[in-house]
Amino acid sequence: MSTSSVTEARALGSRAVVLGIGAIVAILLVAAVFLFLTLPDAGTFNARVTQLFVENDDLTSNAEIKLLEILAGSGTAFAETLASYRMVIFVLLVFATAMLVAALVFLVMLVTMNRRMAQIERAGMEVNSLLISREENTVYLNNMEFKLTPAAIETLSVLAEARMDGDILNGSELEGVISGRRAADCDEAAGATRIKRLRDALGNQMVSELLVKNIARKGYMLSIDSDVIKMV
User: What is the CATH number of domain 130-231?
Assistant: First the structure.
């Protein structure tokens, strides 16, 4: 049931993206057609100058001929300028279309990612295997490899052993196990500092926050199945 709902949601999302992109392209295409139709023709000014030549063939003095030549040159310059404006407007419309389409795609991707993150946070991290190699100071989490410091490996190993025993360790107990002292003699903040350094060493915020859970008023634990944990 959940699989079919997820498939339907994906299909609906893909359909919405296609419709959104189509709407953006259609709106900008209509705007471009309207704009180009309402712009004056590049040859309009030259046509008017030609009409002046035809209607005023009695203008024969040098000054009058020179004025008509200036008008003709101005018409040519105006036509070239208008043509360049048309090209600039076309490029800007294409750029606007690309930006709006990209914005829509990124928005849909962001919404999808947020929903996926919410699902992961609700369901927890699905870990198929957690291999801790103390000799190599390396953790293999599913297909991800994390190179950690010896202190971070020690902290993770203690948490893994506690998880296999079904225990939850607070900061004092964690520090006591690592340091070999009694938990009553250890500071809660020392264990919390070790957890923070472990999360920093893991690097990926999603991995560290979901892997190492902080249970309020109880302590810390690994939020994975104890059967997938192996230590070498």
Answer: 1.10.10.10
E runs forming strands in 40-90: none
CA atoms within 13 A on the CB side of 173: 12
Q: Record the tokens describing residue 34, joined without a space.
A: 């309207």
- The rounded distance, in Å, linking the Cα atoms of 156 and 231 is 10
Question: How far is 16 from 108, CA to CA, in rounded Å?
Answer: 9
Residue 80, both tokens: 């070239």
Q: pLDDT tens digits, residue range 22-49?
A: 787 788 788 778 877 777 665 666 677 6
Query: Where are the domains positioned within the chain?
Result: 2-123, 130-231
Alpha-carbon gap, residue 104 to 49, rounded angstroms: 48
230: which strand partners? 131
How far is residue 18's CA from residue 12's CA, in Å, rounded to a whole number?
10
DSSP 41: P
> What six digits make up the tokens of 124?
């927890």
183 φ, ψ (degrees, to nearest 5) = -60, -35
Residue 81 has pLDDT above 70, yes or no: yes
Considering the entire predicted model, what is its pTM?
Answer: 0.46
| Cβ–Cβ < 8 Å for 142, 228 | no
> Which residues neighbour 157 within 8 Å (Cβ) at sequence distance 6 or greater?
132, 134, 231
- pLDDT band for position 53 (50/70/90)? low
- Strand pairing partners for 229? 130
